[in-house]
Each structure stands twice: as structure tokens, then as C-alpha cells.
Amino acid sequence: MNFHSFFFKKHFRKKKSTLFRDAFGNFHFIKRFLIFTFGCISYNRYNGFNQLHLEGTEYIKDLPDKKVLFVSNHQTYFADVFAMFHVFCSVKNGFVNSIRNPIYLLNPKVNLYYVAAKETMNQGFLTKLFTYSGGITVKRIWKKNKNKINPSINILSDITRMGIALNDGWLITFPQGTTQAFAPGRRGIVHVIKKYTPIVVPIVIDGFQKAYDKKGIRVKKKGVLQKMKFKEPIQMDFKKETTDSIMEKIMDAIEQSPKYKKDNS
């Protein structure tokens, strides 16, 4: 076998594998099935006994298919993410500010990923299915242990996995790393932004903590209007801006900075 035929076969195998698997080796047809199934189960939560009001999806309909990072505040472990899957699949299929036609679930966005804490996603079979559908599990950067706070040794590995997701598609992150409102942002996400220079799109959500329990699985209240607002991409100079200035822009954009806390007090 000469070099050219070897290179062609190797390149063809790699190209063929990307047609059937995502960047982490998960089969697309399984992801499609899981997104469709979870989408059908959760649909009434956003367009049934509860409603989801959307705003600003026109900012994302023409975004490139890769290297887009979404930053959002966080209110439940899973209900927020499920809603975003509905929205992104809907936008992919040409709908604007609407998830009223669930036909979009037949053609989901499979190169969509989200960041979740590893300890949360290892709690059972169901959460492992959630992970397969697009979860990027990371260890918490800061862990409390007997009144000491120790940095995780896996930070670089976590950043690399987020980079792989960005190079393959869209990535959803929650910079605060907690469902507690107005918690400070964690700087790990800024390292990802500086290294991979994605388009950074802010999302502001509300109402999810009223409708569901902390995990976002059990329904606490019906008749809740949930809100999800997309904003224009954040303008930033990746080389010149400091970590603090980028973090400040992100927290302002997702309306979790101190000035928003004062307005809500």
C-alpha cells in the first residue's frame, strides 16, 4: 500500500466516523433518539401546563455551526438545559422565538453540548443518559473540604474537553456553577474563552426555579411563565482584555452582577 492510498483510507475512515459519531465518540443516532425522547417527555413543561416565553433567538439563527459558547444564569440542574435543547433545535429548523411546532425534534441539533458537574451526572442511569445526549462533565474547580478550598487538578483536562465541544459545535455553560442567584462567576470559563476564542452569546432565564425542584425533574407548580432571553454576542478583545474584565462583561450580560442584585433587592 503506497502513502497516498494509506492517507486516503485513513482520512476516509476519520471523515466517515464523524458522520456517525460526535467529537466524544457518541453515536449520533442514539443522541437523536435521546433528544427526541426527552423532548417529547418535557414538551408540556414549556408549551403546556407551563409556558416558555422566548426573546432574541434572531441573534442565534445565523450563527456559525461551530465555536459558539452560550453563557447563562442557572436555576435548576436539568430543566434549564432541556428548555435550551428545545430552543436550539427549533431555531435550527427555521422557527423564531417559538417552540410551538415540536416537529423540530425529528431533526435535532446533535452537535450541541452543555457543561455539568461530574458528581451530578453520576447519580444514576437517567443522568448518564442525559450525559450521552450532550453533557460535558467536569469536576468543580473549587471544592470545600474541612474549611479548606482546594483547586481541582483536572482544570486543564476540563478546559480541553470544552474546547473539543466548541470545535465540534455549540456549548452551553453556566459560569456561576451553581443555581444560587447572584453567585460570583468562576474564572475557568474565561480561560476557555481566551484559549478557543468562540463567539460568546449570553442567555438570561427566569421562572424555572418556581416551576421545578432544584434538579429540574419534579414539577413544583403549574401555570408558570418561564422566560429565556438571548442577547447579542458579547464584544471582547481576547488578547488585550484581562480575565477580570471578561468575567465582568459575562456577569453583566447574564444579569448576575452586583448591580442587578441591588435592583432585585
UniProtKB/TrEMBL annotation:
SUPFAM superfamilies linked: Glycerol-3-phosphate (1)-acyltransferase
Originating organism: Blattabacterium cuenoti BPAY
Pfam families: Acyltransferase
InterPro entries (UniProt xref): Plipid/glycerol_acylTrfase
Pathway where it operates: Lipid metabolism
EC number: 2.3.1.15
Protein name: Glycerol-3-phosphate O-acyltransferase
Residue ranges constituting the Phospholipid/glycerol acyltransferase domain according to the UniProt record: 68-208
Keywords on record: Acyltransferase, Transferase
GO molecular-function term, one example from the UniProt record: glycerol-3-phosphate O-acyltransferase activity
